[in-house]
Amino acid sequence: MRVLLVEDEVRLADNLATALRDGPGFAVDWAEDGQAGDDCACNLCYDLIVLDLMLPKLDGLSLLKRLRSRKDSTPVLILTAKDGADSIIQLLNAGADDYLAKPFDLGELIARAKALIRRGKGAAHPTLSVLGLTVNTLEQTVVRNGVFVDLSPTEYRVLEYLIHRPRVIVSKRELLEHLYDYNWEHHSNVIEVHVSNLRKKLDAVLSECGAEPDPIIETMRGRGYRLAPSLPMNADQSPEPAASSAPIPEQGQ
Description:
- By secondary structure, the protein is α/β, with parallel strands linked by helices.
- It contains 8 helices and 11 strands.
- It has a 5-stranded parallel β-sheet with strand order 2-1-3-4-5, sandwiched between helices. Strands 6-7-8-9 form a 4-stranded antiparallel β-sheet, covered by helices on one side.
C-alpha cells in the first residue's frame, strides 16, 4: 500500500515514514508542505494520506477541503495538536476519516492507518478469505487450504493488493505505484519476479498436500494481473472499480 505523508517537521516525518515502512511495509512518499502534498495527491493514487494540520504554504485543513472538493475519497488521517471538540467536529465535517492528537504512540498510528486502508477497500475486518486463501492483514500471514504459506514481505504485499481487488485487472504500473515510493527502478522486471515466486509458493502448498496446482493469479497479456475469476469468492468480497493509474514522477523529483 502507498501512503502520502504531509508533515513539515523533518524529524517527526522521518520517524513516521520509518515506522510505516518497517512495520506494515507501506511505501511512503513525504511532502514537507501543504502545496507539495496537494501536488502529490493530484498526480498519484494513494491508499492513505497522513496529514498534519499546521503546514507552510497550505494548511492541512485547506488541503483536506481541496481533496474532498475534487471528489478524492482517499482516507485521510489527521495529525493535530488541537483536540478540542469544536476542532475535531470541524475536521470530520471537512471530510477527515480519523485523527490523532499529538503526542501519539507510533503503534496506534500504524493500527489506525491499517484500519483506514481496510475500510477504504471495503474490508473492515483484518482477516480476508478468498479463493481458498486466508490473509490476516494484522499479522501479515497467508494460509492456503489450512497450510501456512511463507512469503517475503513484497510477495505478501502483492497478494494483499490483489486480494483487495477481486476480479479486477491490476496493471504492473499500478502495482509499482502502490508498492514502491519514488525510488523504484523504472525499467525493472521486479513485479514479474515477485508474481512468479508468489505463484510458485501458493502452488507448492497444494503439491505438498498431493493436490493439483490451482492457479490463483492470472496474467492478462499486455494488461496486468488479476485473481482467477473462475474460482468462487467469499461472500464478503465484492468487486470494486479498478483504480486509475497516474503518471509517476521521475526519480529525484
